[in-house]
Amino acid sequence: MNKYDTNNIFAKILRTEIPSDMLYEDEYAASFKDINPQAKIHALIIPKKEYQNISELLDGDKEFLSNFMKSVSKAIKKINVKNEDFQLIANNGENAGQEIFHMHFHLLID
Ligand code: AMP
């Protein structure tokens, strides 16, 4: 895998260099609306750590991973106000459709 590019779009969103429609944020994670929604609600949930994809996250710092997943749960509860069924998807690598190389979950609620 290539080195993490600190100029990727989501890194810029975390640094507030480009705007986002923020839905949830804490010490470990941020969640904002996808710019090109594929469902009624389409949010992205990203870690506040430089991981390019979910493989790196899973192989990385276990304490961070645990805290991040707790934050993912909080973000989902905040965004999914009606407690509907949902999809949580991570594209890992170019051949799987990953376009932005800062790890992210797609949260889709139809
Ligand atoms: P992936 O193909 O899994 O890397 O997903 C990247 C996602 O980021 C796509 O669904 C895009 O619509 C979304 N996206 C790209 N730029 C932005 C942006 N500036 N703000 C919010 N979402 C974005």
Automatic annotation (TrEMBL):
HIT domain sequence ranges: 9-110
PANTHER family: HISTIDINE TRIAD HIT PROTEIN (PTHR23089)
GO molecular-function term, one example from the UniProt record: catalytic activity
Renumbered ranges of motif Histidine triad motif: 102-106
Organism per entry: Candidatus Cytomitobacter indipagum
Pfam families from the UniProt entry: HIT
Lineage: Bacteria, Pseudomonadati, Pseudomonadota, Alphaproteobacteria, Holosporales
Name assigned to this protein: HIT domain-containing protein
Active-site residues (renumbered): 104 (tele-amp-histidine intermediate)
SUPFAM superfamilies: HIT-like (SSF54197)
